[in-house]
Specification:
disordered C terminus, alpha/beta, about 40% helix, two-stranded antiparallel ribbon, Carbamate kinase
Length: about 325
C-alpha cells in the first residue's frame, strides 16, 4: 500500500505542471546515448507520447552523428578532416541526408507510433521550412599548431525557420520529428548542427521549453556540484572563468540564443537516465540544469484552473 500511495504522490506533484503547460509547445533535441540504447529509446518514445496526451505540443529534433560515421565506414567513404575539422563534401552530404532524413528519422517516428503516438518525419527541405546559408570557413589547427582557415563544405548556418508546417502538424495531433537538414537559396541541402536547429525551431515556435538531451547531468560549478538553475549572466560568467568548457560551451550558447529569442526556459538533461524528460518537467527538483533569462517571465503556478484550461489539442 505504501508504494501505491507513493505513486499517487508523484501524480499529485506533477499535476500543477500538467495544468501549467497544457497547450504549450516543447521542443526536444534527441541525441546521445538515448538514441542507441534500446531501453532508453523505448522510454523516450513513451515519455514523448505521455507529454502529447496530457496536452503538450511536442516537437522532436534529432541528431545522428554516430549513425552517419557507421554508414560512411560501411560504404567505404573516408571522412575528410582539415585542421582537425570535418569537411562535408558532396558525397558525404548524400550519406548525411540518407541517414538523418531516412534511417534515423523513420526509426524515431516508428518508435513514437509504436507507443501509441502519432508522429510525422520531416527535414528542413520539406516545404523549405528551414533555410540556411553555407557556414563557409572556420578556424582549425595545422600540424605545426598554427591557425588555418578551413572550408567546411556543405555545412550550414540557419537564417530562417518558417514555423507554419510544424504548427499545422502539431494542431493535427502529430509529433513532428525533424532531421537537421536545411536548404539554401539554390535548393542544395546543408548539414546543420542538431542543437542549433532545435534552438532555432524553438525560437520560431515561441516555445515554452527547449530540452537538450545529452550524456551529462547538466552544468556543474567549479567544485563539481550540479547546478539546477542558471540565469544568462551566470552562464556567461561560468564560460568566462573556464568552468563551462569543451563540448558544453556550444550547448549553453545554444540555450542562451534560444532564451534571447523568446524561449522561456532551456533544460539540459542527461538522456542516459530513464524518464529524465518527465523528471525534469514534472517534478519540483528536476534532474538537469535549467537556463533562463536574468529576469525570467513568471509562469502561472497552476494552483487553480483557468476557464477552458483543458480546451484544445
Amino acid at each position: 500500500m505504501h508504494d501505491i500511495v507513493e505513486k499517487a504522490a508523484v501524480l499529485h506533484e506533477a499535476l500543477p505542471y500538467i495544468r501549467r503547460f497544457h497547450g504549450r509547445t516543447f521542443v526536444v533535441k534527441y541525441g546521445g546515448h538515448a538514441m542507441v540504447d534500446e531501453q532508453l529509446k523505448q522510454s523516450f518514445a513513451r515519455d514523448i507520447c505521455l507529454l502529447r496526451y496530457v496536452g503538450i505540443r511536442v516537437v522532436v529534433v534529432h541528431g545522428g552523428g554516430p549513425q552517419i560515421d557507421d554508414t560512411l565506414k560501411q560504404m567505404g567513404i573516408e571522412s575528410t578532416f582539415r585542421g582537425g575539422l570535418r569537411v562535408t563534401d558532396a558525397e558525404t552530404m548524400k550519406v548525411v541526408e540518407m541517414v538523418l532524413a531516412g534511417q534515423v528519422n523513420s526509426d524515431i517516428v516508428g518508435l513514437i507510433c509504436s507507443q501509441g503516438g502519432r508522429a510525422m518525419g520531416l527535414s528542413g527541405r520539406d516545404d523549405t521550412f528551414i533555410k540556411a546559408q553555407r557556414l563557409g570557413t572556420a578556424q582549425g589547427r595545422a600540424e605545426d599548431g598554427s591557425t588555418i582557415d578551413v572550408d567546411l563544405g556543405l555545412v550550414g548556418r540557419i537564417r530562417h525557420v518558417d514555423p507554419r508546417l510544424i504548427q499545422e502538424l502539431c494542431g493535427g495531433g502529430f509529433v513532428p520529428v525533424i532531421a537537421p537538414i536545411a536548404i539554401d537559396d539554390d535548393g542544395r541541402p546543408l548539414n546543420v548542427n542538431a542543437d542549433t536547429a532545435a534552438g532555432e525551431v524553438a525560437a520560431a515556435l515561441k516555445a515554452s521549453k527547449l530540452v537538450l538531451m545529452t550524456d551529462v547531468e547538466g552544468v556543474r560549478d567549479a567544485q563539481g556540484h550540479h547546478l539546477s538553475s542558471l540565469g544568462a549572466t551566470q552562464v556567461e560568467a561560468l564560460i568566462g572563468n573556464g568552468v563551462i568548457s569543451g563540448g558544453m560551451i556550444p550547448k549553453v550558447r545554444c540555450a542562451l540564443s534560444a532564451v534571447q529569442q523568446g524561449v522561456e526556459k532551456v533544460h539540459i538533461i542527461d538522456g542516459r537516465q530513464r524518464h529524465a524528460l518527465l523528471l525534469e518537467i514534472f517534478t519540483d527538483s528536476g534532474v538537469g540544469t535549467e537556463i533562463h533569462s536574468d529576469s525570467p517571465q513568471r509562469e502561472d503556478d497552476g494552483d487553480s484552473l483557468a476557464p477552458g484550461a483543458f480546451d484544445g489539442p
